[in-house]
Amino acid sequence: MTQAAHQQTSPQPTPLYGYRKYWAECYGTATFLPTTRAEMDALGWDSCDIIVVTGDAYVDHPSFGMAVIGRVLEAQGFRVGIIAQPDWTSKSDFQRLGQPNLFFGVAAGNMDSMINRYTADLKVRKDDAYTPGNVGGKRPDRAVTVYSQRCREAFKGVPIVVGSIEASLRRIAHYDYWSNTVKRSILLDAKADILLYGNAERAIVELAHRLSRGEKIADIRDIRGTAFVRKAMPEGWLEIDSTEVDEPGVVDKLHSPYQEITDLRDSKGDKPPCGTQSANADAASEVQVVQVLDLRDTNRQLKRSFKGRSYIRLPAYEAVKNDPVLYAHASRILHLETNPGNAKPLVQRHGNQEVWLNPPPIPLTTEELDWVFEQPYARAPHPTYGEEKIPAWDMIRFSINIMRGCFGGCTFCSITEHEGRIIQSRSEDSIIREVEAIRDKTGGFTGVISDLGGPTANMWRLNCKSKEIEESCKRLSCVHPGICKNLDTDQTPLIQLYRRARTLPGIKKVLIASGLRYDLAVETPEYVKELVTHHVGGYLKIAPEHTEEGPLSKMMKPGMGTYDRFKVMFEKFSKEANKKQYLIPYFIAAHPGTSEEDMMNLALWLKENGFRADQVQTFYPSPMAMATAMYHSGNNPLRRLSRKRGDAVASAKGQNARRLHKAFLRYHDPDNWPLLRDALKQMGRSDLIGSGKHQLIPRLQPQDWLEKQRANAIKPGKKILTQHTGLPPRDNGARRTAKPKRTSR
Fold first, then answer.
1. Which of 473, 465, 457, 469 is closest to 527 using CA atoms?
2. Spatial separation of the C-alpha atoms in residues 484 and 520, rounded to whole Å
3. Residue 645 belongs to a domain with what CATH number?
4. Can you give the CATH number for the domain in which 458 is found?
5. Contact 53, 101 (CB under 8 A)
6. Predicted model pTM
7. Strand partners, 196
8. CA 667 → CA 104, 113, 591, 612, 657, distances in Å?
9. CA 496 vs CA 485, 527, 531: distances in Å
10. What is the pLDDT of residue 511?
11. pLDDT tens-place string over residues 543-568
């Protein structure tokens, strides 16, 4: 059996703690993984086996990726060094620990470097929560690519292994919001040897051990959760055209799997009509490396003979770059092939190279996840940072991650694409041990645990009732359009965990700050009672995201009826506990599928319910998210795509359109009233302009607002709003307007 075939047919993987340790285990455990040669010398090391390069400050805590990967590899016996936030303008900082014996592990950090640096309005942020002093600009744009290039310059021939959410969400051709283009797989730009996607403990442990045994990285092609570039397809495999799995309509057919589509336009710059062949197809090579079989014409016996040896070919990079329908189609196939129980490898051609994605990794067991979280973390920033504040550390230092994954499938969120839909839960005992460790070892602890959660607050231990059904399921969400009947929604174990944690000696309060799935919470009223009575600090933030069916259906979020059910429970149990507590709902502006009328109706709902949002979120098209495919392509990949009867999705594009959507969320801000007045008039809703109870904004700007505008200088030629006051305009200087606060979710 070939290595490539092995990855689909192998039995359960070796447990993380089941490997024979590497010989360097004799050096023991480091208090902090070394970041300098002096620290290596103090440990008695002459070299590092693996060096992790990261865009975040080094915080030795299980909420920081570099610490998790470093400690997991250390537990295997490897010597791991950390290069945190290096100077990327030259190779010298990448040489500070010497040449690694096995590989460089390159990560952008806990956040995508582009999202970390730019707002949804494409403005440069001045802060960075993962940097000492909250200073921005300490990592490059597209950090994985830049760091990989510098590592290659520093030590030619050393394998480059890329990971983190930045690499994970760019593993195939993807829409790049910042350049407004479709970019190729990050593997090619970074020139990496292999990419590890998702939470990569299982993949990186196996990779490290195999490299340590002398295997060449170019020969390691069978590890789940990895992607790499290859020149040719393996022999003895069945290729499945993705358009046969989920046909988008008539597309240009390539006769050769290595033919490059340079452009789908004719000599006049127009696209050929649907159903016609492009000039590229006529120029196809006669070389046929892999036989492409139409599954509809393949008998069952043939399918069985290729079991474990079939892959799905996505449309090529050059095709998805030029064709929005094919882009949406590729996104749909990628998301349908994310279940570790049934996912097939995916292949996407880029020019004359093939990007191969192995199926997702087998989720960690509870015992393995406990093992990962109970490594000897120092639970503190590296001492070299001194007293400088690292906001991300301050935020999580008294919080505990109890699980991974999310089966919600919200289209605007990247958690599912990165961590998967299957919930991986820690044991109750392991969580309690971490609570005790915080109490006993973390400086500044006052007795309050700030969070017991993770990607969501209340999916701990919730899984499919049937392993067989789970392994065959291709649903994009377990809770949309309704909760799957096969999903276990019992929150009783979580109630028990909360009660046990809050009654520990020295623990005054346990708060829940992670995002709450209220559609799940209402299924167990006793859970809502426990939460509201003991674990809310006056305010509970939840995320309905919108009130209107159009955007909600594109987000895969529940309707407001479920929110209302939860609100009734929340108020009832708060009253019974004799506590004044409030729900704080979050909403998104400018999400694909949202019209101006939808935003107007949301604003009316906010006013009717007495909400004034100080911090609002504008949709951010992150790479590989399903909603990003909607935003870029104008098509809905939640449904089977068709050129003839496609489900078109409109999006607010351009700063003016996005600003208007955001203004509706902040209807109470006088700075937004002029814009909203013009929009409401154009929408034929002038009836909403006035001071009545059911009207949205007043007809006149307030006097103090006008005086403030007058006090602020304006640019020459600019006019100030004076039509309602008779005040003359002034033009001496630059006009200033209040900036909305940056959203923090």
1. 457
2. 11
3. 3.30.750.200
4. 3.30.750.210
5. no
6. 0.88
7. 226
8. 50, 32, 18, 8, 15
9. 24, 10, 11
10. 97
11. 999 999 999 999 999 999 999 999 99
Task: Please give the DSSP secondary-structure letter assigned to residue 423.
Answer: -
Count the helices and strands in the chain (H runs, E runs).
28, 23
| Residues 250, 210 share a domain | no
Strands (E), 258-390: 310-313, 346-350, 353-357, 380-381
- CB-based burial label for 483 (10 Å; 0-12, 13-18, 19+): middle
Among candidate residues 33, 53, 36, the one with its CA nearest the CA of residue 143: 53
Average pLDDT estimate for 620-630: 96
User: Do 149 and 220 belong to one domain?
Assistant: yes
Strands (E), 79-234: 80-84, 103-107, 160-163, 174-176, 181-183, 194-196, 226-230
- The phi and psi torsions of 26 (rounded to 5 degrees) equal -65, -20
Residues 6 or more apart whose CB falls under 8 angstroms from that of 462 comprise: 407, 423, 487, 488, 489, 490, 491, 520
Q: Note the pLDDT tens digit of each residue in 585-606.
A: 999 999 999 999 999 999 999 9
Domain span at 294: 238-351
- Concatenated DSSP letters of 19-84: SPPPGGGGG---SS---SHHHHHHHT-SS-SEEEEESS--EESTTSHHHHHHHHHHHTT--EEEEE
Indicate if the alpha-carbon torsion angle 162, 163, 167, 169 is positive or negative. positive
pLDDT digits (tens, 9 = 90+) for 7-56: 444 468 999 999 999 999 999 999 999 999 999 999 999 999 999 999 99
Token pair for residue 102? 């096995």
Is position 634 within any domain? yes
- Measured CA to CA, the distance from residue 39 to residue 44 in angstroms comes to 9
Same-domain check for residues 347 and 415 = no
Report the pLDDT value the prediction gives residue 88, as an integer from 0 to 100: 97
d(CA 490, CA 512): 18
Are 34 and 81 in contact, with CB atoms under 8 Å apart?
yes
